[in-house]
Amino acid sequence: MKKLSARRRHPLAAVVVLLLALAATGGLYAAFAPAGKAQADESSQSLTIKEGKKLYEVGCASCHGTGGQGSSDGPSLVGVGAAAVDFQVGTGRMPAATSQGAQVPRKKAVYTQAQIDQLAAYVASLGAGPSVPTEQQYGPGGADIAKGGELFRTNCAQCHNFTGKGGALTKGKYAPSLEGVAPKHIYEAMQTGPQNMPSFPDTTMSEKNKKDIIAYLNAVNGDETDNPGGMELGGLGPVSEGLFAWIFGLGALIAVAVWVAARTAKAKKS
C-alpha cells in the first residue's frame, strides 16, 4: 500500500490520469454521438415522409392510387423519384384540373416549397428515382454557353424552337416556352421527361451538358436589349425570318419597282 501511495504521488501521475480521462471521453463521444445524430436525421426524414403521405392522400391518391400504384386516371408514381414530383408540383402542373386539354399546362403552384419537399420525400420512398438536383448541378458556374447552344439545337430545338420559345406538336399538344422557367425545373424536366418530352438521364446526357443547355437558355432569354444578332423576330427561327423577308423585303422591292415605273411613264408623257 505504501508503494501504491508513493506511485500515486509521482509527478507524472496527474498527467497520466488526465490523458486517460480525455481518451475515455473521446472514445465515448465517438461511440455514441454519430449514432445519436443518425437517429435524429432518420427521425426527421421519417417525419417528412409521414407529412408527405398525408398531403398525398388528400391531393393525389384519387388519381394515382392510395399507394402510388396508378389508376385509370393517373400513372404509377413508383420509381419516378423526387425530381418528378418537384417539377410537376413546383410548376403547378399537378394537381391537374378536372377538365383539361391535350396536356397539362403550367400554372401557379398550389403547394408551398416545404409541402412539395414532403410530397417528394413520400413519393421517393415508394421506389428509387431521380433526386432533386442541387444548385451546383444546374447553376451557371463552369457552364459553356456555346456548347449548350449546340446541344440545344441538336436535341431540343425541334420542339421548343431555337431559343426555347415553344412550338406546336400533333393532336393539340405543344412544347411549352422555356422563358421564365426556373433552371432547377429545366434540369428536372431533362431528367424525368414529363408528358411528351423524352428523358435525358445522365447516361444519355451528362450533368455538365445539362448545365450548358440551361446556361444557353438563360443567355438567350435574358436581356432582350442586348441581342448581338439584332431584331430577334420572336426567336422562332427561319420561318419567321423567311416570312419577314418575303413580306417586307419583297414588298419593298415591288414598291420601288412601281415607283420607278410610274416616274418613267410620267417622264415620257412630259
UniProtKB/TrEMBL annotation:
It catalyses: a quinol + 2 Fe(III)-[cytochrome c](out) = a quinone + 2 Fe(II)-[cytochrome c](out) + 2 H(+)(out). Keywords: Cell membrane, Electron transport, Heme, Iron, Membrane, Metal-binding, Repeat, Respiratory chain, Signal, Translocase, Transmembrane, Transmembrane helix, Transport. The cytochrome bc1 complex is composed of a cytochrome b (QcrB), the Rieske iron-sulfur protein (QcrA) and a diheme cytochrome c (QcrC) subunit. InterPro entries: bc1_cytC-su, Cyt_c-like_dom, Cyt_c-like_dom_sf, Cytochrome_c_Oxidase_Subunit, TAT_signal. Its EC number is 7.1.1.8. It comes from the Bacteria. This is Cytochrome bc1 complex cytochrome c subunit. Residues 1-30 form the signal peptide.
